[in-house]
Specification:
Number of helices: 3
Number of strands: 2
Helix content: 55-70%
Strand content: under 5%
Number of domains: 1
Largest sheet: 2 strands, antiparallel
Strand order of the largest sheet: 1-2
Order of helices and strands: HHEEH
Oligomer: single chain
Distance between the termini: 29 Å
């Protein structure tokens, strides 16, 4: 996840995507999908439809047995997508 953030950081700093410079807009964009996916995963874990291999997670869990890595994924990947989208919009003049 760190490499994803570092890889897209130039989109903000060099190309001016302006995603991190608008934290309220970022929060409003992220809150609904993150909450939905967290609830979805918690239910899937509780119903044994979804699990995580212990070797690939730290063992740190949020309520509902949700690994911290899963929440990190739900935050980082959409932010990287938003950085890409805003950069394309800026470069295309929109």
């Amino acid at each position: 996840m760190g490499l994803c953030i570092l890889g897209t950081l130039p989109l903000e700093l060099v190309l001016g995507a302006r995603v991190y410079r608008q934290p309220r807009r970022l929060l409003l964009t992220m809150i609904v999908p993150v909450c939905l996916f967290v609830v979805w995963d918690v239910f899937a874990i509780a119903w044994d439809h979804w699990s995580y291999t212990p070797e690939f997670v730290t063992g740190w869990e949020l309520p509902g047995a949700l690994p911290i890595e899963e929440l990190t994924f739900f935050l980082v990947i959409p932010i990287c997508g938003l950085l890409t989208l805003e950069t394309v919009r800026k470069l295309r003049g929109r």
